[in-house]
Amino acid sequence: MIRTILTYPDPELKKKSAPVTVINDSLRQLVEDMAETMYDAPGIGLAAPQIGVLQRVIVIDIAGGDEPPELIAAINPVIVHAEGETFEEEGCLSVPKYAANVRRHGKIVVKGLNPDGEEMTWKAEGLLAIAFQHEIDHLDGILFIDQISQLKRDIFRRKYRKSQEEE
Ligand code: NI
Fold it and tell me: Staple 63 to which of 9, 70, 75, 162, CB 3.0 to 4.6 Å?
C-alpha cells in the first residue's frame, strides 16, 4: 500500500525513531509499503518516520532508469565505519523541490538486520553511501537541510515559506 509521505515542517520528521524489537509480518508489511511508496514517488530512499512510523527502518534503491531494482531494506541500521568525504547535491521526498550540497562520508560500513531478521553488513560508497547516511539521519529526526550551513538554511526557509504561500 502506498503511504502518504510527510513533508517539512511536519513535526514527526524531527522525532527520533525507536529500534525495532520484533521482526514479524507487520514489520515486513511496513517494509513492503515503504518500498512501494518510494518507487511510486519516485525516490531512491525512504525512512519509516517519513510515513509517520517512528521505527528504525529504511529502504534504499539507487538503481535508476532501466536498471533492475536492487532493494535494500535495513532494520536498525548503524554506521560502524566511515571514511572519506563527499559533497554532493541531495534532495528528499519530505522536502519537495529543493536540493542542496551536503557533506557526507564517502565510504561507510553499515550493520543492521534484513526483514527476515538476519544480521547484515552493507559496504557502501558513492551514491549508496550518501543514501544510507541521509536515511539514517531521518531516524534521528535530522533532515538534509539541517546539515547545510546556517546561511543556506535561512535562504531555504524564506524560499520555502514563499513557495508554500503561493500554492
Ligand atoms: Ni530524505
Answer: 70
